[in-house]
Sequence to fold (425 residues):
Amino acid sequence: MNGKPAILGGTAAFPEPLPRYISTGEREANAALRVLQMGILSEFLGSPGPLFDGGTQVRTLEERWAEYFGVRHAVSLNSGTSGLHAAVVAVDAGVGDEVIVPPMTMSATATAVVMAGASPVFVDVDEATCCIDPARVEAAIGPRTKAIIAVNLFGGPAKLSQLRCLADDRGIALIEDNAQGAAGRCDGRLLGTIGHLGVFSLNRHKTIQCGEGGMVVTDDAHMARRLRLVRNHGENVIEANGWREDEDIVGFNYRLTEPQAAIAAVQLERLEELTARRIEVADALSRELRRFSCLRVPETADGDRHVFYVYPLWVDAVRAGMSKDVFAQAMIAEGAPVAPRYVRPLYHLPLFQRLIAHGAAFVREPDGRCPVAERTWSDTLLYTTLIQVPGGRDLVGAFAAAVERILDHAAEIRALDDAAEIRTR
Ligand SMILES: *Cc1c(COP(=O)(O)O)cnc(C)c1O
Fold:
């Protein structure tokens, strides 16, 4: 227990590769097989008529999703990314419009805006949650602002009640990018249902999945119609349906297949079970890690629920006696499932630095635009996927013991770092 940390030549806390996380099982396999045996793998038609909205599995999934989340409309798509794009079109943001987004998120949050021809405006996050900061959002709203996209990062809620009030007040839309937060809550309400639109991902890395897939929920009938038009070659049905106000729609093929929908329906039934498992590990981890004064663990307010897509952890380098990156490398040397950094603030991407997208209506984003996101990315935030590792609950003790060994040897580790023997990004 009091031996050396692995980075100094001690025995690793996790010497064997950790088992791979597979969230699907027998039930999903049977559901998919039943559909395969029927042989109807998709029933969408890109023309007027009942099949414009898809086949049996797709519709069943959407009905159940709407019921589970207590919303009027749930529209499935082939990814969260296409869901975000469709959501931006649904709120009528296009060329000449601006959409406020956080920089600390998966790139699709911002590229969805570009796909619709609008300009993303990056607004900094708040330190405690890493989600977009309502005060800064308010200051960034201008005459061209059409919407705010708030990301419930890592599965924890953004300040959604505040953002929804702000959006309603200013006559703009709030879109929740809830790709990471299915079954999470904010002020007692399910994430995804607080904005005018909520976007989910069913990608295999997310908390529930069907390989690739997405869902958008809304109570607004007109927005729901626009989502369906973007999903399935909407230009072909505008005339027959007399939907003159939606003539601007350019449709895509964003359709989910029938076997995927059948798998997703089973995963939805298992959402609570799969989520509870992650939360149990996360709670155990927080209980163990709170005793280290150099670490800050994720805290949830009353009425909120964090679902831990990943488990974020903030390091105080001064107290730890080593930088966050060095601490993370020491944990990685232990075999712990730790990533030293989440994505770099998005405006650093060449797309947003060099204005090379079609239309190119957005403005150049200087480095340092969002100082909290920058500092968090480089200096304080790391995350672990221990919450999803099978049997992760039993590994929490070893994880905390590794942290202790590393902190106990801070001076030696720092010396190694000074000698440039630790590779950090
Ligand atoms: C995964 C993710 C997306 C994209 O979802 P896909 O289904 O992979 O297209 C969008 N936003 C966030 C925050 C995500 O984590």
Summary: Residues 79-81, 105-106, 108-109, 151, 177, 179-180, 201, 203, 214 surround pyridoxal-5'-phosphate (CB under 6 Å). The CA atoms of residues 77 and 290 lie 40 Å apart.
